Amino acid sequence: MEITIIRPDDWHVHLRDGELLERVARFSAYQFSRVLVMPNLNPPITNTALCLDYRDRILRGVPGELDFNPKMSLYLTDQTSLQDVFDAASCEHVLGFKLYPAGATTHSEQGVTRIAPMMRLMEEMAKHDTVLQVHGEVTDQHIDVFDREAMFIDQILLPLHEEIPDLRIVLEHITTRQGVEFVRDTNSNIAGTITPHHLLYNRNVMFSGGISPHHYCLPVLKREEHRMALLDAATSGNPSFFLGTDSAPHTRQNKETSCGCAGIFSAISAMEIYAEIFEQANCIDRLEGFASRFGADFYQLPYNTGTLTLEKRNWKIPLYLDGPDNESGDQITPLKAGEQVSWAVKAGDG
Ligand code: DOR
Ligand code: ZN
User: Which residue has its alpha carbon closest to ligand 1 atom 10?
Assistant: First the structure.
């Protein structure tokens, strides 16, 4: 059995920079035509000029023959200016601004500390049809880590959407039933991306047989009822939910340590894993909408002209992506490392 779909897009990915970029970016380019690249480098990508340089570095890190078109999100800070919004709105490569609440996740220290002073900027974004991509978690350390997304929706997102209903918002990597309901029950200016790992796992996997740093990401995995809500949403055919892997590579050294980084690297087998998930849910026919059409519709971009063919064939995801020196610990552990997956990319065209 095989399926051929319009070449898909990944609307949320971390490609990093330097040597790590050169190791990981090609995997996204093998599978996806457009990717929305997150700006949480250190220092962050806060304006269009920095972002165009970064985009050039990304393109240099990817084999030239691949059809790969990185789109960019700029890092919103307390210092972002109206001029930054105008510049972004007039650049075809920039699709929006990423709101990281300060302290919410990896390299978010320079993120937004208070929403109220940002309203003027967000009105301007709405006027220019610039999208706000949101990491939706409150950062108050007193709030239970499993409740932070639901609380962010109540305290920040609902009031923001009410105040500026024209602002188009993507709630990135939704992880809860409340995230699903927020996206489903608001107008078409609100969308949500869903990762493969939040579809595959509930929070038990982080603690099964011992602590498992390679299953740690943010927002953290939740209870089974939330995973089920995400699975329903992703496979429902509702165009407000679309693909964003949140593939976020870290070296084993930085994951397997006393205070490991958040992030799961899925770019080497993302489409195969999504295909397996959709097939198991008896709706492989809905994969194309989720992976190749709904995101493009939301971002008001044409569908890709190429295709991707996936075939039913078992193969084993490698244990590690090797570093320059295999023994150095500079390896990257992918999602489902060492496990079998039943779909494989057969051919890409375009
Ligand atoms: O798990 C995550 N990793 N969540 C994020 O929000 C950031 C990302 C990263 O950059 O590693
Ligand atoms: Zn991310």
Answer: 106
